[in-house]
Design goal:
By secondary structure, the protein is an alpha/beta fold. The chain has one domain (30-299): Metallo-dependent phosphatases (Purple Acid Phosphatase, chain A, domain 2), CATH 3.60.21.10. The chain contains six helices and 20 strands. The longest helix is centred in the middle third of the chain and has 13 residues, at 196-208. The chain starts with a strand and ends with a strand.
Length: 342
Amino acid sequence: MRTDRHRFPGAKFFVSLVLAAALLWGVPQAEAYRFVVYGDSPATNPQWPQKTFNNEVLGYINAQITQLQPKPDFVLFLGDLVTRGAYPQGKSTLNGWKTFMQNTLRVDGVPIKIYVVPGNRDLYGPQGWPAEPALQKVYQEVFSDMPSNGPPGYDKLAYWFEYGEGLEKSFFIALNAFGFKSNGTTVVNWDNGLDQAQLDWLRNQAQAHQSTAHHKFAFSHGPAFSTGGYHVDPSVSQSMWLILETTGFDFFFAGHEHLYSRGNNPNPSHYRVFQVINGSAGASLMTPGDIKVDPNLWHIHFNDNLSVVDVNGSNIHQEAFAVIPGEGGYSLQSIDNVFISK
């Protein structure tokens, strides 16, 4: 059974995440686990180039995450960590982002585990577009703590891991949709696409875990279905999505588009996997004029945001929160709920 609802339809619900956590589907942590999803924290003008990421919004979100009860077991960050991966030439700004995250995502002095995927901006050099292959190697060096079980050529860029036991045992797989490929003469980077090697690896890993993992989650920087008419290669919107649908995935998390969106698109009667875009943790936000789909059907909110996901036995609860700026600082608003019972 799959249902979704807003907890307080039509009402503005401003809370701190401490209070919100108490209202979440609460279960003893020994019986369940929790993770948080967010992405896209690049600094924008006039912060750039003095700042490489929006530490104000990102710091606020991290502070709220550390106060969650129960605490999250890990977080997924969906790419576009910084405005440009290298500024000036040869100097990685990714190290600064990683250090900031390690310092601000701590509970009782212990860092919360962070899983990341590369975004397009994380591979930009001093001049911006196009992405630079050398910066992909820098990314791999900075995030050398990511798993090393991806397909050949994707070390630290695409990977999988398991979490939980029994009915809560879950399979997570990270995809790299902004890596590099050869067009026959030069090396260029994908614009939200996957090569056959990654697709075969995704299919093989998903099938290998189909009978052992009760829940399945995929995450990447680029969405499979765009709210703003952004380019999505058929290798993502068709080939990847078909694999997710036929191998029992529950959620696909993405960033890239600077808003919140959720749906099992494009047709809920034929598609079972929920796509959730958690696309801004300080990025320049999209506006209603940027949207090419029905915002009500796609559950769109134009705010910085995060999702808190609880897995309890055969059940999953995903709750999304918007970051609301105000005169006294920021507050959080609960904006979306999805409940899955399997």
